[in-house]
Amino acid sequence: MSYNLVLASSSPFRQAVLDKLGLPFFCAAPDIDESAAPRESIEEQVLRLAREKASALIDRYPDSIIIGCDQLGSLAERILGKPHTPEQAFIQLRASSGQCVTFHTGLAVYDGVNHQWHQRLETYQVFFRELTDDEIWGYIHKEQPLQCAGSFKSEGLGITLFERMAGDDPNTLVGLPLIALSAILRKIGINPLTD
């Protein structure tokens, strides 16, 4: 099958995850408003934003397979998005210390050949160890996780913040669940093992 695979993201972390499948693809950054809608659950929000990211590229790449994803963390009832500042990162990590944070990842794939949508919601849990203020500031200074939901990079030094992790696919934590994506791609007719 001949296809164009587009990742609707400028994230180098998601790009590195998708590289694992060995399929040719390119990235295009969608321009969307990522604000939450009124009375929207975290699950509804990440699925909606994943679909909006892919939808934003349909006119530019109409006959392509477009992958959109979005991720948010939650600590009890509190949503943990991207901190954007060191101070906000400290607040998030201080609150996460000794706690379990659940990451919700929405995946939306648009099949431009057959004009069909495929969506999945994946979760992954991170159990933080008890962190000192010095450890938190040291981590923020060394890794600058300001554009990462939850204020850490699990694929880097952030792994030292945890006691354990739980979930079906560790790639979900980076924001692109490969097991779910592989299943969707096979349904569309793209198999990383034979293509």
From TrEMBL:
One of its GO terms (molecular function) is nucleoside triphosphate diphosphatase activity. Keywords: Cytoplasm, Hydrolase, Nucleotide metabolism. Its cofactor is a divalent metal cation. Its EC number is 3.6.1.-. The keyword Cytoplasm applies. It is found in: Cytoplasm. It catalyses: N(7)-methyl-GTP + H2O = N(7)-methyl-GMP + diphosphate + H(+). Pfam families: Maf. GO terms for cellular component: cytoplasm. Transmembrane segments: none annotated. Signal peptide: none annotated. The active site is at residue 70. GO terms for biological process: nucleotide metabolic process. The record marks 13, 71, 155 as: Important for substrate specificity. Its main location: cytoplasm. Belongs to the Maf family. YceF subfamily. Nucleoside triphosphate pyrophosphatase that hydrolyzes 7-methyl-GTP (m(7)GTP). May have a dual role in cell division arrest and in preventing the incorporation of modified nucleotides into cellular nucleic acids. This is 7-methyl-GTP pyrophosphatase. It comes from Rosenbergiella nectarea.
